Amino acid sequence: MNFSIVNIQEVSKQDWDSFAYAHPSSFLWHTYDFIMGKNKWSSHSHESFAVIDEDEKIVGIFPLYKISFKKYRFFQRSYLDNIGGWLCQRDDPVYTSILLKEYRRRLSKEKQKVACINFATSSLCYTEDPLFLQGISSHTARISILDLSLGTNVIWSNIRKGHKSDIKKAQRCGVTFKRASSKDLDVYYEMHKHVCKKSSILPHNKQYFEYIFNSAIPNNQAFVEMAYHEGYPVSAVNYGIYKDKAVYWTGVSYESAYKLGANHFLHWKMIQELHSRGIAYLDMGEVFFKHSSPKIQGIVNFKQGFGGVLRPCFKSIVEKK
């Protein structure tokens, strides 16, 4: 049987998304629009590809990005990055072998010869490490998962006492909420730039958030709410949604949100909404037990405070010798 390799730009959006949706392990990270949206990030370029059979049907896809950077300020380098892992029809070993062979071929072209694979939220769909099964060296990280099927009463009982206090504080302070739409893009992006400036990091391109607000929200693949106090926006949270799972995708806030407890209240309100929609799981993100950055460790502690359980997250850094 003959197969061909085609870049994502050569595949129709409908064919790509239909294949992804039919796979039991797929998530938002595998969708055509997300891949195109992530390529709006600075220094990113397309490397995603599909395997096509002789009937011109997709039998496998591999979301992949080339990220360029300068080493020692002069030498141009790049590496390959993936989120979500790969998808193969019926997880067929022949298709998987073809996908990984092409992946390694592309890796061999990169000067840095390093690639990252992160199954992220899709890890929930696997009972065994898919990287290990393919002979790829890996390490198992942890993600904090809220089981929304338990119901809001049980979820509330599992939330930390300090988080509950902040939620009640926000209620007393009169924090209100608004469901975000494409009209709120500029407000959200201003908060994003504020957060990045405070943290001395470069903001993402506005085009990335245009994808979220103009495509993901209308297609029910993003759920964004904004918290207001005395008529002014103080924070916003974006949950990505796909099938019966959600993920804490992006979030922004001003300093006043911390004093008001607005972030805690906003998440709690959105968690209740996800439950009412029938979403089964919420991925709050990767957990680090002792991160070297106090700020990152603080974010981890915030996420864990909502009472999630730790589940495996399959990751690998591949180095081409």
UniProtKB/TrEMBL annotation:
Residue ranges annotated for the BioF2-like acetyltransferase domain, each copy included: 158-285
InterPro entries in alphabetical order: Acyl_CoA_acyltransferase, BioF2-like_GNAT_dom, FEMABX, PG_Glycine_Bridge_Synth
Coiled-coil regions listed in the entry: none
GO biological process, alphabetically ordered: cell wall organization; peptidoglycan biosynthetic process; regulation of cell shape
PROSITE patterns: FEMABX
Keywords assigned: Acyltransferase, Cell shape, Cell wall biogenesis/degradation, Peptidoglycan synthesis, Transferase
Top-rank taxon, per record: Bacteria
Pfam family, one: Acetyltransf_6
Gene Ontology molecular functions: aminoacyltransferase activity
The family this protein is said to belong to: Belongs to the FemABX family.
Descriptive protein name: FemAB-related protein, PEP-CTERM system-associated
